[in-house]
Amino acid sequence: MFVLLICACGSLMPVPEWKEKGARYLDEYTNSFLKGKELSSEPHFVKATREIAAGNDLRLLAVAYLTKYALHTASLERFDDSEFRKIERLEPDEADMAYCRFLQGNFAAVNASALPARYSGLLKAAQRKDVALAAHEISAIIDPVSRLVAAGVWVKHLPYDENILQTAIDTASASGWRRPLLAYLEKLHAFYLESGDTDKARAMRNRIELLKMEKDKK
Amino acid sequence: MTMSREYKVGLFIGVTAFIVVIALLYLAISKGVLERIHTFTLSSKSGEGFTEGMPVVFSGFNIGNVHSLELNDEGVVLIHIKVPDRHVKWVRADSSFVLYRPLIGSARIMVNTENLKSPPLNPRKIPEVLTVNDINDAIAKIEPVLDRVTEIAENIQIITRNLSDPKGDFHRVLGNAEKITSNFASKKSLVEMAVSDQESVKALNESLKKLKDITANIDRVLVKIDKMADKTDREIYGENGALPQINMILKDLVIKLKKLDKTVDNINSISTDASEGMKDLHILRSDIDDAVKSIDHVAKKLDGLIGTKKNPVFRVP
């Protein structure tokens, strides 16, 4: 009883405002980025980094930037890691470096023990260049954003198959994440064209045009 | 020996006559009377500008003149020129002949010889005379300029007519410019000028003023929630307690801010232009998102139990 009271009291300790706001803004940034609200998402990220920087916590700042890079990877986009590198020069961290290298597709240089556990299976598949294993590992990831990040890492850097693309499309569709959804649909369209499946490619193109039209409706 | 008077007179007349003849002969030779004259024939489509006696000029020097003009059976004008022997060397087979009619001065036939070593012109050959017409060329060049000047003068007339017309475009533009500057002077926002829906703009303007208050109030509420741990259950949870009242206020705020959200969406949809003004609206939109989310956050906390305030976890996705 006494222990519970102490725990309750402990949890009533005020959380620093910058930390709470930083986490909230980062969360908002993630949501608006994935939903494709391009112009209003960036201000959320700027506010997040501003709050975290006010707390003088470079580790959390690195996490914020890695989150941004991960979201770009999840949407099959390139990212510029210069900001993260500045932080790493001041306060190097093994886990952050491993994650960054993982996002960049530099699998050989990734410290497997420092990478989040949910990606370890995929790292093994990447080192073996095993597409079937990769498809299985990606679909086994529980968190949808992590699943998209894993799919993005694979598709950007290694040969992929229809299963991986379809997993990513299903994940993005289930959460209404427009930005990665359109990216993977385009990738699947290109995949059908390369494999000579013109009917599927045409159907995919029509689907993409329809979704874009709906998205642009005022 | 003495000469008779008749002999002396005869001798005198003879010598005088001889001297006169020599003088005349010298004069004749120096004037080229005894010089051989070469006749060449030139042709031209038109006899306009040619006159008998017209000089033939080479490098600015007279080397001959036009002797006669005639029309042949084909209607081509034949110009016969005479060139004395001393000047014939300037007239070669590849010489070109040009009728030059300057603006000032008399017309002349100019001979241009590029290669003085080419064979002499055959008198049977009939080269054509080209015409260079200073006057006509000048007129041809001036005519389009005059047309252009006339066009410009007409346009100036139209513009001045428009300028003086009180209902004309110019005055309307000035009137509109006046309205815009008076709007700026009366500190109306760009949004108000761009958006025709006055209601939305009014609501937006009022909300902008209140947004700061709202976020400040939210922060105050959050602080109060933290302090609620001190109060009794009745004071917090009871029907008239602080908790239900705060909840009602916050939920009302959320509804109002959601309406504001929609207004900004409408304004966003008017233009997709990424101008500075629109960037500010997007920043405003993100500010509104933040305000709505923070109220949601507070309301969720109140709907649950007061107590655990978790340390937010920062984790890479």
Q: How confident is the prediction overall: mean pLDDT of chain B? A: 75
Number of helices of chain A: 12
The total count of helices of chain B amounts to 8
Strand residue content of chain A = under 5%
- Give, in order, the helices and strands of chain B: HEEEEEEEHHHHHHH
* Structural class by SSE content of chain B: alpha/beta
Proportion of residues in β-strands of chain B: 5-15%
Helix content of chain A: over 70%
Give the overall form of chain B: rod-shaped
Q: Describe the global form of chain A.
A: globular
For the secondary structure, the number of strands of chain A is 0
Low-pLDDT residue intervals, each spanning 5 or more residues of chain A: 1-12
Structural notes for this entry:
The complex is a heterodimer of chains A (218) and B (317). In chain A, 76% of the residues lie in helices and 0% in strands. By secondary structure, chain A is mainly α. The model of chain B has no long low-confidence stretch (mean pLDDT 75). In chain B, 54% of the residues lie in helices and 15% in strands. Chain B is rod-shaped, with a radius of gyration of 55 Å. Classes of the chains: A mainly alpha (218), B alpha/beta (317). Chains A and B meet through α2, α3, α4 and α9 of A and α8 of B.
In short:
The complex is a heterodimer of chains A (218) and B (317). Helix content of chain A is 76%, strand content 0%.
Give the SSE layout.
The complex is a heterodimer of chains A (218) and B (317).
Chain A: H1 2-11, H2 17-34, H3 38-54, H4 58-74, H5 82-90, H6 94-104, H7 120-128, H8 131-140, H9 144-157, H10 162-175, H11 178-194, H12 198-216
Chain B: H1 5-31, E1 37-44, E2 55-58, E3 61-71, E4 77-84, E5 96-101, E6 108-112, E7 129-133, H2 134-164, H3 169-185, H4 190-194, H5 198-227, H6 233-237, H7 242-270, H8 276-303
Parallel strand pairs in B: 2-6, 5-7
Antiparallel strand pairs in B: 1-4, 2-3, 3-4, 5-6
Helix pairs in contact in B: 5-7, 5-8, 7-8
